[in-house]
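Lab notebook, bench 4. The sequencing result for the construct came back, and we need a structural model before the next group meeting so we can plan mutations. Quick request posted to the team channel:

Model the 3D structure of this chain.
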Amino acid sequence: MRRKNFCEISPLTYAISLQKEICKRHLKNWLGKEKYARGIQEKRLDVLVYEQHNNMIKRGPGIDEKLQQNKADNIRLACSRINGLVVMPGETFSFWKRVGKTSKRNGFAEGRVIVNGKLVAGVGGGLCNLANNLNLIILHSPLTITEVHHHSDALAPDPGGKRVPFSAGTSVNYNFIDLRFRNDTEQPVQLCTWCEGDDLFTELRTTAPYPTTYRIVEEGHHFHQEENGKFYRVSKIYRETVDRASEKVLKKELIWDNHSEVMFDYNLIPRELIK
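Done. Here's the predicted structure in token form:
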């Protein structure tokens, strides 16, 4: 039997470990030399680089509707703190520098979070949905991702049975598990984030078209049951860099060797995708 890590012993030891990591990140930020983006501009920059939108509410067997509504409220609050942010050349975007601490005092409610590999209720839950959308629009640009973390890409069944590569899987946890990118280009970019009803919208905008475009490609997608009895989603996800003028693929890079534990009812896994 595997020996438990300190954070897995009890809720108290998890809380202690969490605070330790938060303190370490505060110290790292204080000692670091990053210049964080802070400027908010109401007027949108002229050129749309990429946009992403999805419904925030997951429905299905075993999914708590109240936690889903709270998740949507958490995302709306976080969006209001990011919307319109301009990242100038040389500046860094930090998810937690913009969103702040996910506490009830700061207006956040209980949503779904992953703790020690299990979906449970936690304050600020659901913000990974927003982080994933932000990660996707950044992947469709020449910006430099400096920090990204992954959790399960199989939190819920694929809507309508249609697989969207990288539909989930980007993890954030205040404040030590962050999503960060740096603007190493010569022009400013702007993040636009907002909600309409239960739909989340994210845009990346700039001042002039880039000479390259980007696309996400998934290969070998299937589900597999392993010796521990659990099912996993397995695939390789690549990013292709394409020359805008010639449409020639200039580069293909593996961005995630996906091996995600399925965290929904196994009966909802399409039988034809089990290998």
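The CA atoms of residues 56 and 144 lie 27 Å apart.
Will bring this to the meeting.
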